[in-house]
Design brief:
- By secondary structure, the protein is an alpha+beta fold.
- The protein has 3 domains: 12-321, Glycosidases (TIM Barrel), CATH 3.20.20; 328-412, Sandwich (Immunoglobulin-like), CATH 2.60.40; 428-549, Sandwich (Jelly Rolls).
- The protein is built from 10 helices and 24 strands.
- A 7-stranded parallel beta sheet has the order 7-6-3-2-1-9-8. Strands 18, 19, 20, 21, 22, 23 and 24 form a 7-stranded antiparallel beta sheet that branches. Strands 10-11-12-17-14 form a 5-stranded antiparallel beta sheet, covered by helices on one side.
- Strand 6 (194-198), helix 7 and strand 7 (223-224) form a beta-alpha-beta unit.
- Helix 4 (81-90) crosses helix 9 (302-318) and helix 6 runs parallel beside helix 7.
- The chain is globular.
- It binds ligand FHN.
- Ligand FHN is lined by residues 54-55, 198-199, 238, 253, 260.
């Protein structure tokens, strides 16, 4: 091949890669974003008038015509940006991300790109402007959520319900210019803490890179998530605590209730669930973006305000173990996660341990140890294990924090295996089938408390059962099942949970997918044994841990 032809071939192969290249966020900007650890997500818009889900209810529970005219009645007269900021600060949140435009296309700011915006409602006020100013005044960072897909916009190729309906005529390039113009408008309310894009239907890495490069040309230190079509600066596991990851920033986004937008009488998480979600997220190396959905009158629901205040009160006492920390050095296990900064390591013990707490030994000397804000404690390191005893009156039902001061920088310690203990003490696990390497992938791996070990099945297995025999009749009202190798999805497609009644098996829960962190709560069940019956799977099922929750 002639040299020029060879060069042209190389350039043509390299071109797509070059087109996907973006100017990365500065290390300082990433560090600042990670130090914040905890932020408020807000899903809000005229859809609050219906109490149904933002975007998704358009064309499903609410006819499109009705949904798209809600804005004409939207008049949240009790909206007060300073009050929202005060709620976030009282929760201990360091940043706020507002849905400026969700999949339904409605814009919460005075955009010049479309009339479908807040200025053409009875409210006639620029919510984004007021919130950006209130955040600045209140000393917390402000970021904007902006839906990459837009099921309302005539140029976007997909529409409601659920973005599954194709539009006859569309123009993605023209829509991309619309998105970029609106991004420029949002950046004008800045400097923004982050640009949080979402659901990049039809957007590939090249198109996403164009958005990122444009935004970074305007605000060089803007931090952008992984939902423009390009991987951006940070990952965004959703409605679950992300896995241990310290080489790339990430943030779990999760609802305080069940729905993203406001829903009357929605089930709200307990304080323990809220705080342990934050602690497990930080222990894995991530931020938590915790969502509220304000009411149609502009108020954040009082019970949610109260729950957030309770989180803030806990954080005020334990801030050293959260803000500015990073995950590790121990990888998380079911009952212990760790955070670290400077010469401090914080062990977060999330459920009471009878007897000594045991973890893999640190590779550095421990200079001192204490219960955070409490008594000093004695640590022992021998035969590769660190152990210590927590005084009986020091246990905290949500998180008992032990602060270790070490000789050196905690960030220099490589990741350590998790501190494990049996997830259901005294129980025994068996299975209908096991991978050929049963020593490594036997059913007992389910109960060892080590998220890195797993029960596995032979390739091609579509159904199997797991049985857990308790050491005595046991009553429980919840179960957590951690499916391994499931990424952001699930290989399990259908399952049922059964309890042993004498010699018969009775089903007490049925489900579809499992995933990395499946959990279910139900009326108390009493049994001597339970079974997880996997009825269908797309790949040979493999489960790393099973836990039960007792009333
Ligand atoms: O469809 C949206 C959903 O409504 C919500 O905004 C979440 C928040 O991360 N993002 C999408 C689902 O992944």
């Amino acid at each position: 091949m002639k040299p020029i032809a060879c060069l042209l071939t190389i350039l043509s192969l390299a071109a797509p890669l070059v087109a996907q290249q973006v100017t990365p966020a500065s290390p300082e900007a990433i560090r600042n974003w990670q130090d914040a650890r905890f932020g408020m997500f807000i899903h809000w818009g005229p859809v609050a008038l219906t109490g149904r889900e933002i975007g998704w209810s358009r064309g499903s529970q609410t006819p499109i015509e009705e949904y798209d005219n809600l804005y004409k009645k939207f008049n949240p007269t009790k909206f007060n940006a300073d009050e929202w900021v005060a709620v976030a600060k009282a929760a201990g949140m360091k940043y706020m991300v507002l849905t400026t435009k969700h999949h339904d296309g409605f814009c919460l700011w005075d955009t010049k790109q479309t009339d479908y915006n807040i200025m053409n409602t009875p409210f006639k006020r620029d919510v984004v402007k007021e919130l950006a100013e209130a955040c600045k005044k209140g000393g917390i960072a402000f970021g904007t959520y902006y839906s990459t897909c837009d099921w309302h916009h005539p140029d976007f190729p997909l529409t409601s319900p659920g973005g599954k309906t194709k539009r006859e005529s569309h123009n993605l390039d023209r829509y991309t210019e619309y998105l970029k113009a609106q991004t420029r408008e949002l950046l004008s309310y800045g400097p923004l803490f982050t640009l949080w894009y979402d659901v990049p239907q039809m957007f590939d890495a090249k198109r996403g890179a164009g958005i990122i490069n444009m935004a970074r040309a305007i605000q060089p230190d803007i931090v952008i998530n992984n939902r423009t079509g390009h991987k951006g600066d940070y990952d965004t596991p959703e409605q679950r605590v992300g896995g241990f990851q310290i080489h790339r920033p990430w943030e779990t986004c999760m609802t305080i209730c069940r729905q993203w937008a406001w829903k009357p009488d929605d089930k709200m998480k307990s304080l323990k669930e809220c705080l342990q979600t934050l602690i497990r997220t930080n222990g894995g190396g991530g931020n938590l973006l915790f969502n509220v959905g304000p009411q149609p009158d502009g108020l954040i629901e009082p019970r949610q305000v109260e729950r957030l205040k309770e989180m803030g009160a806990w954080l005020a006492k334990n801030s050293d173990a959260v803000y500015g920390t990073r995950g590790g050095p121990w990888k998380p296990s079911s009952h212990i996660v760790s955070t670290r900064k400077g010469d401090k390591i914080y062990l977060h013990i999330l459920s009471k341990v009878d007897g000594p707490v045991i973890a893999p030994a640190l590779p550095v000397a421990i200079k001192s140890a204490q219960i955070l804000n409490g008594p000093t404690i004695k640590t022992t390191t021998e035969e590769g294990s660190l152990s210590f005893v927590v005084p009986d009156n020091s246990w905290d039902e949500i998180d008992t924090i032990v602060e270790l001061t070490i000789d050196g920088n905690a960030m220099d310690i490589p990741p350590l295996k998790p501190a494990t203990r049996p997830s259901i003490p005294g129980a025994k696990a068996t299975a209908s089938t096991t991978h050929k390497d049963s020593r490594k992938h036997g059913a007992d791996m389910l109960l060892d408390g080590d998220p890195e070990s797993r029960w596995a099945t032979p390739d091609g297995t579509k159904n199997a059962w797991l049985q857990i025999d308790f050491d005595k009749e046991t009553t429980f009202n919840g179960i957590t099942i951690e499916e391994a190798n499931s990424g952001h999805g699930s290989n399990v497609k259908k399952f049922e949970l059964q309890k042993k009644d004498g010699t018969t098996w009775t089903t007490f829960h049925r489900g579809g997918a499992l995933g990395a962190h499946f959990s279910a709560s139900f009326d108390p069940v009493t049994a001597s044994a339970i079974r997880l019956n996997i009825l269908d799977a797309s790949k040979s099922p493999t489960i790393s841990e099973i836990f039960i929750q007792t009333p």
